[in-house]
Amino acid sequence: MSADFSERRVKMVDGQVRTTDVTSAPLIEAMLSVPREAFVGAGQQDLAYIDEDIRISDGANGGGARYLMEPSPLAKLLQLAEIDAGDSVLDVGCGTGYCAALLSRLARSVVALESDSALAEAAKSTLSSLGCQNVTVVTGPLPQGQAAKGPYNVIFIGGSVEEVPAALLDQLAEDGRLVAVEGRGNSGVARLFFKAGGVVTGRRAFNAAIKPLPGFERAHAFEF
C-alpha cells in the first residue's frame, strides 16, 4: 500500500503540480516526500491524491466545513511565497497539518495555527509521527494570528478570506511576505503582500478558486 501511495505522489506532482508552472525544486521534493494520505481520515486515503479539495471536518461550534486544499493551487500559493530555508513561517488554518508538513521541509520553523481543537490535536499527532520537529501547533482564533511567536518572514493563509486582517499583516517581519486568496469561488484572487520599510503593500498574482477559511467573514454594516 505504501508503494502505491508513493506512485500516487509522483503522479500528483507530474500531473497536477508541474503542469501549473510550479518549478520550485524544494517544493516539488517536499510534495514528493510528504505522505498526503496521512492527513485525511482512514476512509479517505484512497482519495488523498485526487485533484479536488477533501473535506476533513464538518465544522466545530457552528464554524464552516474545513478542507484539505487541492494540490495544484496549494503548490502555486506556496511557490508564490518564495520560502527560504532560514524563514520563520506562520501557517494560518493548518487543519490536519499537511501544509505545515510541507512548510517544515522548506523553512527553519513553522507555527501552525488552528482554531478547531480536534483538528489541532490531529495535526500534532501526525506531524510528530512524521518527525516534523520544527513545527509548533497552537490553538487560537485564526484572524488574530500568533503575535507572541512572531514576527514572521512568511505568513500563509490556508483558505480564501474576504480580506486579510490587519492583525496578520502587523505580524510580518521586515521583508516578510504574506500569501492569501481574497474573494470566494471563481472571484478569488491570490495576492502577495510584502513588507518593506515598515509599510505593507500587496499585488495581484493569479486567479484562484479555493475553499473559504471560516472566521474571516467581513462584518456587514447596517444600512438604511
UniProtKB/TrEMBL annotation:
- Record-given protein name: Protein-L-isoaspartate O-methyltransferase
Similarity comment: family membership? Belongs to the methyltransferase superfamily. L-isoaspartyl/D-aspartyl protein methyltransferase family.
Q: What is any Pfam family matched here? A: PCMT
Coiled-coil stretches noted in the UniProt entry, renumbered to this chain: none
